[in-house]
Fold this protein.
Amino acid sequence: MIKIAIIGTGNMVGGHVNNYKDLRGVKVVAGVDLDATRAADFCEKHDIPHAFSSIKELLASCDFDAASVVTPDAFHVPCALPLIKAGKHVLCEKPIAPDAKEGKKLVTAAKKAGIINMINFSYRNASCLQKANQLVTAGKLGNIRHFEAHYLQCWLSSPVWGDWKTNPNWLWRLSTKHGSQGVLGDVGVHIADLTCFAANDTVKTINGHLKTFDKAKNNRIGEYPLDANDSAFMRIELENGGTGTISASRWASGQINSLALCLYGDKGGLRLDLDKSDSELEVCIGTDLKKAQWKTLKCKKTPSIYHRFIKSIKTGKNDQPDFEHGWKIQKILDACITSNKQKKTLRVR
Ligand SMILES: NC(=O)c1ccc[n+]([C@@H]2O[C@H](COP(=O)([O-])OP(=O)(O)OC[C@H]3O[C@@H](n4cnc5c(N)ncnc54)[C@H](O)[C@@H]3O)[C@@H](O)[C@H]2O)c1
């Protein structure tokens, strides 16, 4: 039995606990949250034996093998470090940290401790994305030449996800003081990972543009200065030469959670739209390219990151995306922020 502790019992914790429940030989044994009541309510709801309000208490009095870190972005590193030092395997939420320098601490600590480590780039659970990666890796699209990708949400203009003006769970996402890198760090990180994974490539250069709109009196609500970016644009060249754009926004009125990618090579193209389906992929490859005809591929279910995290623990073989990969994606975000400030194209190193 692999025993799991979950740190941070807010909005996203449901994804973790419900996925672990579906896996045989896995038991969530503890929930930890700075808000002791929230931790206790969560543990009661899911029949989890131990609730704590600090990692120190958890480490002192609970027997467990691995942890999910599901705290706000600013707390990923401070929460994961003591767990890693205690020899626990860690599945950490994205982004790895507020910047790459901070994220590197997790990469180094995980290597030193020899623990299994993964970053929850959850859209990798979509079988159409796994299929896209396989097709590109097998050369079915030829050399990648062009791509367009977006991740669009509307929670700043619509109450579909709740009222961000009164809810700390949304307000921390709008404030750099609270460790947020805005829409870029929140969901831009997902679409950057998705694009690189589908293209089986990494980013060489980036030209970034970020925009923050005034959203309240003095652009502040209580302790939250609303200074984090709302819209992000990345003009990118990949290491293998393909060029394209990635954008993300919280102002895409009418779009609840829309991720899409079009990827074109010199032998074919593919389109995925997770709003429509996470198991269907449109392709124009092989002889279909002559008539520019598109076909829909039905993609078989693939194992989730939670499943692969547990399998990695059992086999001792660390699957992807690991901390090092999370750190590399973080370097793209950092370069986007610097490029926006300096108004020039930068090499991602
Ligand atoms: N992979 C995905 O698809 C996905 C989706 C949503 C959110 N996320 C990520 O999950 C993380 C959490 O997001 P959320 O929406 O659940 O946030 P949230 O604000 O709803 O919940 C965070 C919880 O963490 C607790 N917390 C804060 N600091 C803590 C600490 N030091 N120790 C223990 N608990 C602490 C808070 O009290 C709160 O209950 C973020 O990093 C976010 O980017 C990932």
Remarks:
- Residues 151 and 191 are 6 Å apart (CA to CA).
- Residues 2-122 form a domain with the Rossmann fold fold (CATH 3.40.50.720).
